[in-house]
Amino acid sequence: MRHKLARRFAAVLTVVSIAILLTLISCGGRPDINPTLPSNMAIVISDDPTGDWATIGIKIQSIALTPQGGGAPITVYTAPNPVPVFNLVQLNQLGEVLANAQVPAGSYTAATLTLFANPGDVTLTASADPEPGFAGTPGASVPASQIEIVGAQGNAGSMTLPLQVSFDSPLVVKGNTSNALNIDFDLSHPAFLVAHVPPTGPTIWSVNFGLAGHDRKVDDITRLVLRHIYGTVNAVAADNASIVITRDFPVEPPTSPETAISSSQKLSILADGTNGTLFFDLDAKTSATIKNFSAQAGSLPNKFVRVAARYQPDGSLVAVRMWASSSFAKVWLNPEGYVLHVDTANAVLTVSNEDGTPLPITVNSSTQFFFRTPYNPPADATPIGTGPAFLTNIVRGFEVHVSVVDPLANPLFEHTVDIETAAFSGSISSPTATGYTYTHTFHTTSDNYTVGLNYVAANTPNGKDANGNPITGYKWWNFAFPRQVDFGTNAIPDFIAATNGTVNFGGTAGTMTASGGSYAVWGNSANPNGWSSLFTVLTPLPIPLAKVSANFVTTTNGGNFGITVPNGGTTPVMVDLSSVSGSATLVYQVDRQSNIVTVSPQDITTSAGLNNIAAHLVNGTTVKVFGVPQTDGSIKAYVVIYFTGTQPTS
Predict the structure, then answer these.
(1) Domain termination site, one of 197, 218, 239
(2) How far is CA 60 from CA 139, 304, 435, 594, in A?
(3) CA 41 to each of CA 59, 112, 307, 314: distance values in angstroms, whole numbers, following the listed order
């Protein structure tokens, strides 16, 4: 059995997996607040990266808010017909704009996301080059019969999965005000996507969307990096300042040539009247910087467009770059996805597109690289590098959107590369007062990298704390406790102390060190001509499938047991579990009977839960541990999975 952390920083566990951003935008008008007026609501979904999957597709039926004090739920999103498939893998810290809605003034305590849950409504396609040990077949789609959607309910053909997320504090909506709410479903949870590989029979993928959900405050809507928006132009405004588009979605599974599904959802998008919008006519193969649509007013209606947009403080969308064509295939055939390979010798960047197909694209002397910074419009529109030499600054796992000179040419030549997220990950070493080193090893050895990152400068704006106070400088947190952010003068010393632990399994299994994932920014004063680490998430190591070598022993605040790694390990290692409420280790019993896999959480904050795991964590039990190495050589466990029924293979 190979249990992969389904949502990862380029294959290392990440913080948040699916976020549904409900942004309450100002209605404008009078300066006074009228509590009876509704607010416009822009609905966005986002996600974090994974190196193992090309597609984790979902279909969202609806999103509704629960009024405080009772009353009927307020539906803020209803799926169009036909229902689009949203590929979570493509939403690496990016926002996918779903719709706009009117939300009545009032207080709301929860949100309910309803997914379609029939066989085939959740789709899984493996990456063309997944991590070593991945349980799936590279590039292959998992048959619907091998995907188990935990919690699905209803009759065949109309099954759904309702997911309710309670807010930490009520969402208060007032007319003429701006609010934002980010609801996170933790798909990076080690038990979200469990692959059970038996000695004989099919691999079953158990998908559990209902493990955890919480709201995360959005400090500044203008800092959201949005995924490119596709649509058909309905009209150009009379003043030529904006266009109205009808959202288009690609047919799933993809067709050749790619065709569009038109929805009923409409969006208004402004030209950048201050900095200018870079406009590409893919039919005429021309480009221009425009501050309004006057020159395009006669030709744009009924054309397909792709838009790199940003939010303004009032919630309006402004185009940073726009591509237009009479052919949907032309605006679509500009790959967006993960960087799969970087070939600096031959100046080729390989990007994994929507369906997992690796697309090699040649960089030439005129190729421009941009780093998306929507909160800084001039920087968002200014290239940070040009030509093949800049490829040395890109590693596998970055999320990019490539625009090619001619989308129908062979080979493809890049015109622009939008770096949407710069994600580094791997084993952490050599932490100092100024930076640290990441080492990442991939299945394709030419993708391996060792990169030194500086911390961002101490005066760099970096979000807000739990009380709404601005944070400046580098910050980090433990994946298990995303709300316990370490920042300020002690952040770097604490980070150094937290990454000094190792665990040694002996033999060929060897030593494992702390690991993490980071997002970087370009051109910070700490490194004006390179990447600097904005934050780091310490991630629990996925320990190889192990056997219990010393029975579980209960202690005052939890317990511990010993493990050995059968394949190459010679040294027993102790695993510590916490039973303290709020920070307890998450324990799951995974049972397979025939082709049914059941994932059952065990509450070890109770005596019954502790007694149950003590009865199962005995010599010889197969376990999967996710944890952080400690300075004494033990593992502080975040998740422990033990197996009953049909046993998994290594």
Answers:
(1) 218
(2) 25, 24, 41, 30
(3) 20, 16, 20, 12
Q: How many domains does the chain fold into?
A: 5
Do residues 268 and 387 both lie within one domain? no
Q: Can you say whether the dihedral through the CA atoms of 453, 373, 230, 95 is positive or negative?
A: positive
Q: What is the pLDDT of residue 29?
A: 29
Question: Which residues fall within 8 angstroms of residue 595, CB to CB, at 6 or more apart?
Answer: 146, 201, 202, 204
Compute the half-sphere exposure of residue 109: CA atoms within 13 Å on the CB side of its CA: 6
Instruction: Report the run of H or E that residue 299 belongs to, with start and end.
Output: none
Final residue of a structural domain among 281, 297, 332: 332
The DSSP 8-state label assigned to residue 551 in this structure reads: E
**Token pair recorded at residue 132:** 């070593």
Cβ neighbors of 53 (< 8 A, separation 6 or more) are 6, 89, 124, 125, 126, 127, 130
pLDDT < 70 regions, the chain: 1-51, 89-102, 175-191, 211-221, 252-256, 333-334, 353-356, 405-414, 480-483, 650
Q: How far apart are CA 157 and CA 153, in angstroms?
A: 11
Give residue 474's pLDDT: 97
If asked whether residues 386 and 482 sit together in one domain, one would say no
Per-residue pLDDT tens digits for 464-507: 887 778 999 999 988 766 668 899 999 999 999 999 888 999 88
133, with CB counted inside 10 A (0-12, 13-18, 19+), is: middle
Q: Which tokens hold the place of 94? A: 């990016």
Residue 73 gets the label, from left (phi > 0), alpha (psi -120 to 50) or beta, of: beta
Q: d(Cα 452, Cα 471) in Å, to the nearest integer?
A: 24
Q: CA-CA distance, 96 to 88, in Å (whole number)?
A: 10
CATH of the domain at 258: 2.40.50
Q: Tell me which residue of 547, 565, 549 sits closest to 511, measured CA to CA.
A: 565
- Assign residue 601 a region (left: φ > 0; alpha: ψ between -120 and 50; beta: otherwise): beta
Q: What whole-number distance in Å separates Cα of residue 311 and Cα of residue 46?
A: 15
Which residues does 116 contact at the CB level (< 8 Å), separation at least 6?
58, 59, 60, 61, 83, 159, 160, 161
Same domain, 198 and 104: yes
Does 314 lie in the same domain as 259? Answer: yes
Nearest CA among 536, 499, 504 for reference residue 520: 536
pTM for the whole thing?
0.72
What's the CA gap between 89 and 423, in Å, rounded? 14
Q: Which domain holds residue 530?
A: 424-542
